Model the fold of this input.
Amino acid sequence: MIDPDTDLVARAGQGDRAAAQALMARHLPKMLTLARRMLGDAAEAEDAVQETFLKLWTHASRWQPGKAKFETWLYRVTMNKCYDRLRRRSTAKLDEAAEVADPALPADRLLENAGVASEIEKALADLPERQRAAILLCHHQECGNIEAAEILGISVEALESLLARGRRTLRARLGHLKNE
Amino acid sequence: MEEQNYPDGEADALWLAGMFRELPPVPVTPALQARVLASFDAVTERRRTGLRGLLRRLGETVWPGAPAWQPAAVLAASLAIGIAAGTFVPVEQALADGAEQPGVVALDALPNFDLGENS
Done:
């Protein structure tokens, strides 16, 4: 199968700004959505995505087509950046700091927090990291099971197990939303 | 969403897809786009001015249009031939082949300088 990004990556590796812009237009929204749902924080998601693209620009000239699908590699890097941040966050106990900061949120954000979307985001955020990653990749980013397993570096069976547990937990948490 | 005759996993997946449709899209801000492009410019500039960029430009001057490995391979091959010749060709043979004779200098002889004292 021909990877549609191969040519763009090669050109970006040679310093072609238009190719870099095209890559950004194709992948930035998806990467940002993934990072935002994984981290639950807009600023951190932007930083994670920027780091991902920095890694892409640094490695673009050495990209070897055929080894892995470019998008799969990009998802994997984004995921790893998110894991790094989650790990740092847990060691620094920033969860408490975030709770303290809540009253200072802007009015539109507070309104948004009251909605269904925020309830879904909260339920997602409460899932264990790996389950959340599997759910987001397969149901939100619409990756196939094989690709998602490759991104997470696990077997398809392990991915399916994560998906099943994640779905059950979310349904138990959010079931009332669709029954209203 | 009504319950239907799907197996459990598939029903959960469909239900979840409906749930995710409720999530608002995450907007990409122009500031983020600018930051990402700025990082591209910085990497490109660093690559252009760094040692690797210098070597690439040198390769481009020596052999325009060729990938970097071609001038590198030719240089490596010529270096290998030179080293092999220096190692395996006997000195006597190399000297005999040429018209030049080796200069002999006696290190224990007195220096014989003529500074114009005898003229």
Observations:
- Residues 29-95 of chain B form one domain.
- The interface with chain A takes residues 1, 9, 12-13, 15-20, 22-26, 28-29, 32-33, 35-37, 39-41, 43-44, 47-48 of chain B (CB under 8 Å).
